[in-house]
Design a protein that fits this description.
Blueprint lengths: L2 H5 L13 E4 L8 E3 L22 H14 L3 E6 L10 H12 L4 E6 L8 H6 L2 E7 L5 H7 E6 L2 E4 H21 L3 E8 L8 H11 L3 E6 L14 H11 L5 E2 L10 E2 L7 H5 L12
Parallel strand pairs: 1-3, 3-4, 4-5, 5-8, 8-9, 9-10
Antiparallel strand pairs: 1-11, 2-6, 6-7
Helix pairs in contact: 2-3, 5-6, 7-8
Length: 287
């Protein structure tokens, strides 16, 4: 990928946030895994990943992008990060392909759990995706089982360690293919004290061997099965970052953006102008 383009991608910088806008198009309604800390839905009340005021259809997305470019001339990146998984249905890739055809100057990207990445790699490439984020919370099935109840594979639910093994194997295959096709890969890791906090270095070392370029450590926001789990302290996050940095650069300025975010991260937000407002609802996904 062009280094100048990467410098203009606010989700992939490791230091100061560039004055570059991005939009997340909330076209991914469904998901194919069941994270124990995740609850998806529609709300404008909570400012964190997985939230969206509404889910839009692919054929609505182009008009949303045109409006966003008017509101935010600094917009350089169009991505899909939820509220479900972008590869659980065809909606995200259909959307990004249309955006790429209309606006080849924009960077297209997506954030996925990786379960269906390898199987969709050709369509991901056809959408012009050059940067991709994959959430990898553990590389041992016994630990991942504590964070993920299971996966949906060919219409069948597979739970426990069997599901965890499938997800890890699919993530490895997807990352290796993305790397082979010259994509820049960021791995998100949701940090959960008592489960994967002492596992961070191994995750970083492993995903680097699969082709990852960057790691982003996201502190748990307790919810669902892990509603009573402790949120990581600043010290615990710092220790995790130091452990990971032995193997990969770590992004330190993540804003935990919503699935319908639009604007310059941390400075401007145009999501309400694009999608309107809904009433409060307690839903959450780490994307």
């Amino acid at each position: 990928m062009d280094n100048d383009k990467l410098k203009n991608h606010p989700c992939f910088g490791t230091s100061c946030q560039p004055m570059t806008g991005r939009i997340h198009l909330p076209v991914a309604k469904d998901c194919n895994i069941f994270c124990r800390f995740c609850s998806r839905g529609q709300t404008d009340y909570l400012t964190r990943p997985g939230q969206a005021a509404k889910v839009i259809a692919p054929d609505e997305a182009l008009s949303v992008v045109e409006t966003a470019l008017t509101l935010c001339p600094e917009l350089k990146v169009v991505g899909v990060a939820g509220p479900g998984d972008p590869l659980a249905t065809d909606h995200a890739l259909d959307t990004l392909i249309m955006v790429r055809e209309r606006h080849p100057e924009l960077i297209t990207c997506l954030s996925t759990n990786g379960l269906a990445l390898a199987q969709n790699i050709e369509r991901v490439m056809a959408a012009g995706v050059e940067t991709i984020t994959v959430t990898v919370n553990a590389v041992h099935p016994s630990l991942l089982e504590k964070l993920n109840r299971g996966v949906i594979l060919q219409g069948r639910f597979v739970g426990g360690q069997e599901g965890a093994k499938i997800l890890i194997a699919r993530q490895e295959e997807g990352l290796r293919l993305a790397h082979r096709n010259h994509m820049v890969i960021k791995v998100n890791l949701v940090l959960v004290p008592g489960i994967n906090d002492s596992h961070v270095a191994e995750v970083a070392k492993t995903v680097k061997s699969w082709g990852a370029d960057l790691l982003n450590i996201i502190p748990l926001i307790p919810a669902r099965d892990l509603a009573l789990a402790p949120e990581p302290t600043d010290q615990e996050k710092d220790l995790a970052i130091k452990a990971a940095e032995k193997y990969l650069p770590v992004k330190r300025n993540c804003r935990r953006c919503r699935a319908d975010a639009c604007g310059i991260p941390g400075l401007t937000d145009y999501s309400r102008q694009l999608y309107g407002e809904l009433g409060p609802a307690e839903t959450f996904s780490h994307g």
